[in-house]
Amino acid sequence: MKKLLLLGGGYGSMRILQRLLPNDLPNDTEIILVDRLPYHCLKTEYYALAAGTASDQHLRVSFPDDPRLKIKYATVTEIQIDEKRVLLDDGESIDYDKLVIGLGCEDKYHNVPGAQENTYSIQTMPKTRRTYEALNNVRPQGVVSIVGAGLSGVELASELRESRPDVTVKLFDRGDIILSMFPRKLSEYVQNWFLEHGVEVINQSNITQVTKNGLYNHDEFIESDVVIWTAGVQPVEVVRNLEVEKGQSGRVKLTPQHFLPTDPDVFVVGDCAELPHAPSAQLAEGQAEQIVTILKKQWNHEPLPEELPKIKLKGVLGSLGKKHGFGLMGERTLLGRVPRVLKSGVLWMYKYHSGS
């Protein structure tokens, strides 16, 4: 049997599984999925798990059940492209015919002293569980500092404000206003929501050091019970170690067909791929759809298209607690209850179509 090896059970790999199983996988091919956990995790909702407003079970989606899908629970330690082999932390190795790398990302600490050692994360399910435990144990009237006011930091801060109204939440933002990559109207709405709900937003911040007891913003020390880092990501180490061409962000450069310029059998999906959009679950799914198209043509020995259609992104939806939110759909800015309801609906539909 030929082997299609998927590394990582994220949004991209899930979409590939959904499109190939049960009817579109060649009879002479099996799929092997390598992941550390026995289920797909809703990474876009990790902020809610960390804040204690969503259960662990709520963020799990089962992998498809199919006799031609084998799941190996392990951590990838090395990808040997020349040998068409992947090494795992249990000492085993897996050979492949086709490979899809979807291992996701991890925090990028920008060489800030103490940041990696003294902060909590919401980048993986195990790290998010650890963050939840730490936030649960913060003393009444304690201080939680969140470094990074992108989508993850904003959603975490707002959710934590609802789940722990007894603690002080500080959100550190490098820009002049929160979510500066969005239209000004949206940024002002979110910044004002935090002002009205008692979240302290520190704009034009520059975190220069993190200690066990707090952090330094410029030269000012701010005592904190817990510091959570949401200030940037990078591909996981095993991808950073690959000797392939990468962009400035460290993500892997690909052909328009999403495989390596030097190897048409190795695809990269999601956060590790150099694409013209910011990484997102939606982008990974769109990319996965196109990877399936290319795989089918390769299996059928059909010519590959020189270009593929631009991946259409439907927009961005974010939450401000359980009742308010914000969004950008094309050129249209959404504020208030409607985007929050829409986000809940999108999540429900995703779980429903994934069989959970």
Automatic annotation (TrEMBL):
Keyword rRNA-binding: no
Pfam family, one: Pyr_redox_2
Name by which UniProt lists this protein: NADH dehydrogenase
Keyword field contains Nucleotidyltransferase: no
CC cofactor: FAD
Organism encoding this protein: Alkalihalobacillus trypoxylicola
BP terms from Gene Ontology: aerobic electron transport chain
The organism's place on the tree of life at top rank: Bacteria
Keywords: FAD, Flavoprotein, Oxidoreductase
SUPFAM superfamilies reported in the protein's UniProt record: FAD/NAD(P)-binding domain
Lineage: Bacteria, Bacillati, Bacillota, Bacilli, Bacillales
TM regions (residue ranges): none
